[in-house]
Design goal:
Radius of gyration: 19 Å
Number of helices: 1
Distance between the termini: 25 Å
Largest sheet: 7 strands, antiparallel
Strand content: over 45%
Shape: elongated
Number of strands: 18
Oligomer: single chain
């Protein structure tokens, strides 16, 4: 007989790195990196067959914000794990529409910076990078970003270098959602006395990028963040 235990999450903690320091021209850390999660599941293998549901509802989080940990904690309040079953991976279903904000230096354009705009010249799309004007100011605004089609599809400029497979992301062309699968930092097998803690860490350092589009316009986009998830007692 299968016995399941309902386990309340004690702590959900999200760490982030936000330092407006440039590693190189055209690269910076975004001040806003909002993602909408639709479903999160735990899995017993990288294939994530027969996953265990943790949460299934829309929740939008700025993973470059210090408040994200509390927001995620409110979103996932409790879940059921099977005693004796070993969990090794986590799977998230996310919207491919995100929000970003920030600026990068760019020595290729006539102005000093590429900055995100609330109404860009060309909106981001699955096969087209968002295009903004160059600026001598660093003032920026929230801007919609749509995750591009896969590396083997017609990405359009400037997305050819995004390696989705290496980041654990699966995205069908023009789809409204995508999935991410990542290995837990440790395998976890609950017992009848378990009281686990789930720790989620995102690092968005230098994941805002730009490239020249014309004499004084830029493409701007987000790269996938680094994600670390552990489940411990």
């Amino acid at each position: 007989m299968i016995i399941k235990i309902f386990i309340k999450i004690i702590i959900i903690y999200l760490s982030f790195v936000f330092v407006q320091v440039f590693a190189a021209d055209n690269i910076a850390t975004p001040s806003t990196y909002k993602v909408t999660m639709k479903k999160v599941e735990l899995c017993t293998s990288a294939g994530c067959r027969n996953p265990t549901l943790l949460a299934e509802k829309d929740g939008t989080f700025n993973i470059a914000s210090a408040t994200a940990g509390a927001d995620v904690g409110d979103w996932i309040s409790s879940f059921a794990l099977e005693i004796g079953l070993t969990y090794t991976h986590i799977k998230a279903t996310l919207s491919t529409t995100m929000t970003m904000a920030g600026f990068t230096t760019n020595s290729d354009i006539s102005s000093d910076n590429c900055v995100t705009e609330s109404s860009p010249n060309t909106a981001s799309a699955a096969n087209q990078g968002g295009i903004v004007d160059g600026s001598d100011s660093t003032d920026n605004a929230d801007m919609t970003y749509i995750v591009p089609n896969g590396a083997n599809a017609d990405n359009g400029d400037p997305y050819g270098d995004i390696d989705f497979a290496a980041s654990g992301i699966t995205r069908a062309n023009n789809a409204a959602t995508m999935t991410w699968i990542g290995a837990l930092t440790n395998s976890y097998t609950p017992s009848i006395n378990s009281s686990p803690k789930i720790t989620i860490k995102f690092d968005v350092t230098n994941q805002l990028k730009s490239t020249q589009q014309a004499a004084d316009t830029c493409y701007m986009w987000l790269e996938p963040p680094s994600v670390s998830v552990s489940l411990t007692d």
